Input
Amino acid sequence: MATTTFLSNATVAIGAVDVSDQCQSVTLTTGFDQLETTAMGSNGRSYTKGLQAVEVTLTMFNSYGAGEIEATLADVVGDDAVTLVISPSGTSESATNPEYTITGAFLASFTPLSSTVGELSMVDVTFTGGTFARDITP
Output
């Protein structure tokens, strides 16, 4: 049984642009590629870690203009050196609020226009690749 609860209020920056106020959700998946090391005569499969694997998915309210979502994404689409900074709650790092910095992320594509009558315009983007670092020092 959980002993604590957590109210999500993540902060997200794409490069130098803080997009937290227009971000509805963020999912960060980190880990490593799984490389098989099983040798002949082994009784079961064995593995070791390979390269870091990173994926960041953002759902944001679309907006237009300098410094807004569409302009920010248009600047980084196709760029293989994007830096993302994500924290679960605010910008003060601690053991209970780790900051993840992803460097060298890649945004292959995004949809700059998605419009339905009577609904807010949303954009989903997925950054892949790069390396991550977890920081808990204030």
Summary: The chain has one domain: 11-135. The longest strand covers residues 47-61. The longest helix spans residues 69-76.
